[in-house]
Amino acid sequence: MTIMARYVGTCGRCGGQIQIGDRIEWERGERSSHVTCPKRPAQLGAAPRTQANIINALFSCAASLGHVVDGNLYKPDAHPADRGPCTRCGRSGVWISGAGQHLCARHQDDY
Fold first, then answer.
1. Domain total of the chain
2. Is the pLDDT confidence value at 70 over 90?
3. For the segment 2-52, what is each residue's pLDDT rounded down to a tens digit?
4. Within a domain: residue 87?
5. What pLDDT is attached to residue 25?
6. φ, ψ dihedrals at 47, nearest 5°
7. 110 and 72 co-located in one domain
8. What whole-number distance in Å separates Cα of residue 91 and Cα of residue 70?
9. What is the domain range of residue 105?
10. What is the Cα–Cα distance from 3 to 109, expressed in whole angstroms?
11. Could you tell me the pLDDT band of residue 85, with boundaries at 50, 70 and 90?
């Protein structure tokens, strides 16, 4: 039966979000679905879901929580422009303000 959604949910067919007021197909005991599922991102001309694109999307999201340097995620108090050898192991690192020293990604939490 076709109804107007009263709650936010997930479409059982396309996995997209159902918003309040969307026209949905509903049957008791079954998953609700859009009457007409919206176009998927690939159909809208978005970048294809390749492994590289997924990793870049994850890094760009993670970068809002810190700094990505050479593929490693550093804390927000890291200074990517100030590079130097890690004081613990000698590998390439960045200045971590909270520690007051250069640390690599592996040792950035050791202070």
1. 2
2. no
3. 999 988 899 999 888 998 888 999 999 999 999 998 876 544 455 556 777
4. yes
5. 94
6. -60, 145
7. yes
8. 12
9. 68-111
10. 52
11. very high
Q: What are phi and psi of 73, to 5 degrees?
A: -90, 125
Q: How far apart are alpha carbons 88 and 8 in whole angstroms?
A: 50
Positive or negative CA dihedral for 42, 45, 50, 54? Answer: negative
Within a domain: 54: no
**Structural domain contains residue 55:** no
**Cβ(88)–Cβ(98) below 8 Å:** no
**Which candidate, 63, 64, 100, 106, places its Cα nearest to that of 82?**
100
Q: Note whether 27 and 35 are within 8 A (CB).
A: no
Instruction: Using a cut of 0.70, tell me whether the model's pTM lies above it.
Output: no
Residue 96 is predicted with a pLDDT of 93
